[in-house]
Design brief:
Two copies of one chain form a homodimer. The first copy, chain A, has 667 residues and is α+β, with helices and mostly antiparallel strands. In chain A, 50% of the residues lie in helices and 15% in strands. In chain A, helix 5 runs antiparallel to helix 6. The two termini of chain A are 33 Å apart. Chains A, B: Its EC number is 3.4.14.-.
């Protein structure tokens, strides 16, 4: 998970006789992209054609569907530019530059702590972001990225594209063949693909791209993935790992399991309910596997005990020199104190945030955002700086689907949970429910709010604080009443948990770096994932699981063998029809040792020539522990082979235009 | 939680100037009872009138209801014996005698381990039980009770009563006022009461009983509870506590949370669905609170670290004397080994057992029970000895309600979970699902099975192994195919987990006892709860929570103040009508320092004169950690005051006959 400005050249040369040239690196950066909602992608033709996962386009396919078309389930096909349709609320960003701003942050926050530190940090981040956006927030997106847990801070600037159109997506049954039972397992037999196209001023954009290698990779071959791993915690202290195990993960697992049970039953009620809920259900199941995998690893591995020893050793190294004591202090003690505070604040602060999802979350964004906008830029919280308002507006204005029954069920469940956790007499619960029960409150709010219409959301957003204060929308009214308590909780949390943790972690990270430098090991480190562009390298290699060797490739033949005809092992009709026309030994999916985590979905697999050979869509079960550490013997990235993609487009979907565009690199 | 044959007389005399006489003890034993399904109860008139909780009679009230009567929700009322109705499948047991059989067990199992130990133990337990039942299993129930984790083994003999009739139950809205938000919280405002009557040969039985004190207890008064605490684990080793925290509890919490989410949505679908699922939903929520409370305590308290020190100290005490080494060995090492095995077996063994609930569980009982019956008594597993077959038959023959949609949903969810956890290619999953999906398998099995009719269940049971092998009932067919794998898993688990854990725990318990005796502290110990009769003492006292003093009593006045009119804070119409006729300062509920856990529900609170002064129905939140330890400053038992019961019967429910029976002690 190397940052593009700090690639492990020496190691690559030594082990693979390959050194990425500046041209190679620039080509990969400019051909790679990030989907704002949390996926990775790549340009695969000079005419703005983008390759990503089917599951990264779920929300788009859902939104384009209507009662006569279920594009998510049945696929989406076009044969001309005119048929390509804009994905509501989808944004694609491409990395433009990286700048180290550690010194600016240090200067602005020197000698400050608690609220003063939060305020100063907020102000400098706001100023840096504003300068970076250069007065054009629709064109540029600028993110402050805290690397090495604050050991380094960088400013990442992206070119934004907001007109992204659906070009082609296969059926859900082949994109997610094997369904949840096979998810995070291997062998897999999936073409988890969607093709999008980026437009500007009504025409496809022209960008650098990864030429499509129609043969895929060979066993043992060196391959790269370029993507945006979401979040890892490989640098957490032992105390924070324990906090994850004992507080955060149980909470996340329980709330998502409850939601999973609810959605499971909701989907069984009717075909409409199944269609409405399938996207959320998939997200919830994915999140659950991730959290459960991490939790399993925290419970059964020796990672916490190991980290505790490392922490003790680092503190001992600090204590051994008065100059180091002065510089780094006792950061682990500060972590302990912040976590103690966090434990008392979490049920109300995080509980409330979890309860306000969906349409209630939109109302909160409106109340919060318009209140923040009344303040000078430097005094606003992260996410609400002038440079970032474009993103909020795009989200509020998007034609996202609104399912009243599902919204009501979700909100009612969230309110029930909140009341259960905080108790009936808690003031937050009282503000939300009054003397009423969660079900009728949720039904009333969802039925009577006008916020399901993007026009109304935008009108309030543009009307600002005054319009929101004057609004009689029942959902706005209740969130407005709740807002002072929410803002106070957030401030308490930011000042007494986030700020001291940030400071302590910065000191820990810098002490680790200094310690590593003193041992000559500083170049062997990469920062934890931060949903910013990273390059990972590896080879196409199977692994051994419970004594069984798992081969790196699967084939079309294996897929047909596993097709029982019953979901989730039912193949779409097109695939049944095409069986005799496909070569059974065509490679379908493969695994490699690339280090990926959530957020890497949709990453291209790239060969040393800079050509696309695969499309990342999953990791194996052990890779879930990748959040905490990477184990080359067990962790595997799972990708669809480009040879399967080309065969499917030509033989199954009869899409020669698209297949030709991939083969030639342009339309 | 003292056993009746080992009461803390010295302590009671010293602190309360009270010594229970043999007459007092006998009177309490004979007036107390256990409901076989997992509750406690007491006789409160000479004519077999029994007092227990509303939530202990849920299943009965559900079963008696039909589409015109919801006795669970609206209450059940009678004005003559003729109107009293038998509760299907309800059994009440009254303790008859306790016999120490430790020496018999030791003799039979001396020098054996693994499968040989399991077999020998099974055989001796079967023989002792058979002798105890004395050829009359309908009249006597005999349980082998392992006390002090095997340090002592006792044979408990109960007089069985299988004709238990519903006499009176108030509405669910007053029995469980405050609902789930208030559950395990205090102050409470509930009358969690049901009145039953035990019959024999068609007439009420005559038994000793607790005279009803219509004034309830005073603040500070010494009170006793006589009941059947289900299970505590206060004697677990540190390794087992860690296993609970890391393996067992997460599993239980996740599976029940998933079920909770499903049932929550199921209940919202229609009034019928709500009625069908309310009993299960309540059980699931209760179970969740219990497991979550224990888990919270394991995570945040120092109990595991403390126990680890105690374990180390005990092993050191053993190691200090070669004779002790010879006698006790290294039991903690044996515990570790058994837990390692348990961890590998749990997903399949426990996963399968959890999946086979409801009607599938009935099918398993039939296949398993008839197979066991083909063996000589001594070679059968616990639960299947001749003396216990009456209980199985009673369960199979009971007219319990059967809701096909709820059964289908529950089974489909269970099968989905099993497939997810074991993987699609697991042989167990394959046997259950074939090439089909969980939903259609569940729908087919529930629709086509004939086991919902008790006549068919009994016919198969009576036909024995031959009838079950010949059955073409689809559910029997699939369970029959599954049975060999299930039986093998169970044998593996019993031989390699249960047996070595039992042996190790017996050695640990005896070493602890010997160690305590060497320090003169042996009399201060009571065994962990085992759902067998126990006496606990305490005083009526509030406590301090987050700096606030909680008063011991609540009143009718407080209840009316909390009645918002919306569920779960809506009072039944009868209570709204009676408001002006009730005295607001009448005591409603109270807390005491009595040490109770799940299973104590329905226990009488008894004063030093042996009179009933209250009815246990809940504990406060800290009491959930009572599974692991008892803290007198925090743990509180929650009871309904007898003064509230008498007032409610006379003034709210206009039941003078019943109130008079309580006041006079006979009809």
């Amino acid at each position: 998970m190397w940052t593009f400005d700090h690639l492990p050249r020496a190691s690559l040369q030594k082990h693979y006789q390959f050194t990425p040239t500046p041209q190679w690196t620039k080509h990969v950066i400019q051909s790679s992209a990030r989907l704002a909602e949390g996926c990775s992608a790549s340009f695969v033709s000079a005419d703005g054609l983008v390759m990503t996962n089917h599951h990264c386009a779920n929300a788009c396919l859902d939104a384009l569907s209507d009662k006569n078309h279920d594009y998510f389930r049945n696929g989406f096909y076009t044969s001309s530019l005119a048929e390509e349709r804009q994905c509501p609320a989808m944004e694609l960003d491409r990395l433009d530059s990286i700048k180290d701003v550690s010194a600016d942050i240090d200067r602005a926050t020197a000698g400050k702590s608690g609220a003063a530190y939060s305020d100063a940090r907020q102000a400098i981040e706001g100023r840096l972001t504003k300068e970076c956006v250069d007065g054009n927030p629709t064109r540029w997106r600028c993110d402050i990225v805290s690397l090495y847990h604050g050991g380094q801070t960088a400013l990442y600037r992206y070119r934004r594209y907001q007109d992204v159109r659906a070009v082609m997506a296969p059926e859900q049954d082949i994109a997610f063949f094997g369904g949840d039972p096979d998810n995070f397992n291997y062998p897999r037999y999936d073409i988890d693909l969607s093709m999008l196209r980026v437009y500007e001023n009504g025409a496809p954009v022209h960008t650098p791209y990864l030429p499509f290698n129609p043969n895929g990779p060979k066993a043992g071959e060196l391959v790269f993935t370029s993507g945006n791993p979401g979040r890892t915690q490989r640098g957490l202290s032992a105390a924070e790992l324990r906090f994850q195990r004992d507080v955060i993960n149980p909470r996340m697992i329980e709330s998502n399991t409850l939601l999973e049970g609810m959605l499971w039953q909701y989907a069984r009620e009717s075909d409409r309910h199944r269609q409405e809920s399938q996207n959320t259900f998939f997200l919830v199941q994915n999140r659950l596997k991730a959290f459960s995998g991490i939790q399993e690893s925290l419970r059964s591995s020796s990672i916490i005990a190991q980290r505790a020893q490392e922490d003790d050793a680092l503190q001992a190294w600090i204590n051994a020199d008065p100059a180091r004591v002065k510089q780094y202090g006792t950061p682990f003690r500060q972590v302990d104190a912040a976590l103690t505070t966090s434990r008392t604040l979490l049920p109300r602060y995080v509980g409330l945030r979890q309860a306000l999802r969906g349409i209630a979350g939109t109302a909160l964004t409106l109340v919060d955002g318009t209140t923040q906008r009344t303040r000078p830029d430097a005094q606003r919280l992260a996410g609400f700086h002038d440079a970032q308002l474009g993103e909020i507006e795009a989200e509020l204005g998007a034609q996202t689907p609104f399912y009243p029954e599902l919204e009501t069920a979700t909100l009612a469940l969230a309110l029930t949970t909140l009341r259960q956790q905080l108790g009936t007499d808690d003031p937050l619960v009282h503000t939300l429910l009054g003397h009423d029960d969660p079900d009728s409150v949720a039904a009333h709010l969802v039925q009577s709010t006008t916020l399901s219409d993007p026009k109304n959301r935008l009108a309030l957003w543009k009307g600002g604080d005054k319009a929101v204060k004057a609004s009689s929308d029942p959902l706005i009214v209740v969130i407005r009443r709740l807002y002072p308590a929410y803002a106070a909780l957030r401030k308490h949390f930011n000042d007494d948990v986030t700020a001291p943790l940030n400071q302590a972690n910065t000191r820990i990270a810098r002490a680790r770096l200094a310690h590593a430098q003193s041992l000559g090991q500083a170049d062997e480190r990469y920062p934890d994932a931060t949903f910013s562009p990273r390059l990972s390298y590896g080879t196409v290699t199977g692994w051994t699981q419970n004594g069984h060797a798992i081969a790196p490739f699967t084939t079309f033949g294996g897929m047909y063998q596993h097709a029982t005809g019953h979901p989730p092992f039912a193949l779409p009709q097109r695939w049944l029809d095409a069986r005799s026309a496909l070569k059974p030994d065509t490679k379908l999916d493969f695994v490699s040792t690339n280090d990926i985590v959530g957020g890497n979905s949709g990453s291209p697999v790239i060969d040393r020539n800079g050509h696309a050979v695969g499309l990342i869509f999953d990791g194996n079960l052990p890779s879930l522990a990748g959040d905490l550490y990477y184990d080359i013997t067990q962790n595997r990235a799972v990708a669809t082979d480009t040879s399967a993609i080309i065969s499917a487009l030509r033989t199954v979907y009869h899409e020669p235009t698209l297949a030709d565009e991939l083969s030639h690199g342009h339309r």
